[in-house]
Each structure stands twice: as C-alpha cells, then as structure tokens.
Design brief:
The protein has two domains: 152 residues, Alpha/beta knot, CATH 3.40.1280; 66 residues, tRNA(m1g37)methyltransferase, domain 2 (Trp Operon Repressor, Chain A, Orthogonal Bundle), CATH 1.10.1270.20. It is 38% helix and 16% strand.
Length: 252
C-alpha cells in the first residue's frame, strides 16, 4: 500500500510516521509513504501557493494549480489515479469501519489544507472523499492525515506484532475495549482484579466481554444503539444497567 500526502510541512509527517509501529511498517516495505511539499509544484518564482479570497474576507486561500500539478506528478509516478482524500471539517468523521474500507486501497493520496482553506475547485475536480477526525478546528490537515494513516496502516497484515490484536481494541467490534492491567498485582492499594490472575481463560474472556460492555455503556452509550447484541451480551447489559442503578442510588 502507498500513501502520498500533499502538504506544506512534510517534515511534520516524517517526524511522526517515521517512528514506532508505522515506521517499522515502512522499513519492512509493508507500506510506502511519500510526502510532497506543495510549494515544489508552484509555478510562482517565490513558490507561493496561496492568494486572497475572491469576494473579500480574512486570511488566504490555497490555490488550485500547485495541488493539480502535484496530483499529476503522483499519477505519473505510480501510473494510476490514487484514491484522493481531503482532510476537512466538512467531511464525514473517520471511523474504524471507514479505516477498514480504506485499508483495501493500494494507493491513497491525502490533501492537507492550511490558511482559510483550499480553493473549492480542488474538491470539485479531484477529490474522491472528504474526511474529518472530529468537530473541532486545527491549524492544518497534517495531524488529521497522520491519524488517518496510523489507523489504516495498523490494519495491514504484518504491521502489528500479534496478528489480529487490533480486532480486540476499542471500536473494532463497535465497543470500547475492556480495562487492561499488568504487574505489580497491587499498586498504592489498587489491586488487579483477581479473575485476571486466576488462569481460568473462559472466565477471563467473559469478564472482559462484560467490562467492554460496561465501559461502553458508561462512557459511550450511543455506540450501543448501532450494535446487534447476542443473547448473552443482552443479559450482560441488563446486569450492567441494574448495577449502574444500584450505584446511583448508593451515591444519593
């Protein structure tokens, strides 16, 4: 899989995506990443890529032409048109399901905006999909692009040390992950749950499923509305709600 990122700050992406698990995936040639400085594709002598907004207004707007030339360069390099994503607060919010969809592509190009935004014709003419990482404002598209790349790459075969470990993480099955513990068994009076030290794998798995449902019910209950729970999970959820009501009454 290959990612091409169109950015004004390629060094930002290299600093993060050249390290840890993603960096190792690049070293092992599981994924290729090319960070293109959009200014390199400007025809302006000063390498300018922004101009004043038509109709007036504050700030500057990124121009079409440098981005177009960068896209054309990428197409000539890989000899196909990549799936082009623009990171934008106007896009649909990135989810784990969307990450799974994107992991099936061989070539993805991501456009990172700056200033007051990008000339809308870039979106109209070249972009296949707009994506957001949440309803908040950032100074540029690099951080969202890195988040997208990270969540997609870790789904690729051979990236994670333990194959399939991503399937038990938060959002992978629509639920939040169960609590995790490690040694020592007691720290400042707080103990690891006895069941996790019991060695009884069936009971541990049941406990983890229960805790996963509980974490989701208490912290992100809206996620449960989208899920089809089996009979055992519905019984667990019923017990969790009862436990929650008891705790609320005790608090009062």
């Amino acid at each position: 899989m290959r990612f091409d990122v169109l950015t004004l700050f390629p060094e930002m992406l290299e600093a993060v995506l050249g390290k840890s698990i993603i960096g190792k995936a690049r070293q092992n040639e599981i994924v290729e990443m090319v960070f293109h400085n959009i200014r390199d594709f400007s025809k302006d002598k000063t390498k300018r890529v922004e101009d004043y907004p038509d109709g007036g207004g504050l700030g500057m707007v990124m121009q079409c032409e440098p981005i177009y030339h960068c896209i054309e360069y990428i197409k000539s390099d890989i000899r196909v048109k990549p799936y082009i994503i623009m990171m934008s607060p106007k896009g649909k919010v990135l989810t784990q399901e969307k990450a799974k969809e994107l992991a099936c592509f061989e070539n993805i190009a991501i456009i990172c905006g700056h200033y007051e935004g990008i000339d809308e014709r870039v979106n109209d003419l070249f972009v296949d999909e707009e994506l957001s990482i949440g309803d908040f404002v950032l100074t540029g598209g690099e951080i969202p692009a890195m988040a997208l790349i990270d969540t997609v790459v870790r789904l690729l075969p051979g990236v994670l040390k333990e194959e399939g470990s991503h399937s038990i993480e938060s959002f992978s099955n629509g639920l939040l992950e169960y609590p995790q513990y490690t040694r020592p068994p007691e720290f400042m009076g707080a103990k690891v749950p006895d069941i996790l030290l019991s060695g009884h794998h069936k009971n541990i798995n049941e406990w983890r499923k229960y805790q996963s449902l509980k974490q989701t019910y208490e912290k992100r209950p809206e996620l449960l509305e989208k899920l089809k729970l089996d009979k055992n999970e519905l019984e667990m959820l019923k017990a969790i709600k009862k436990e929650h009501r008891i705790e609320m009454n005790i608090d009062k």
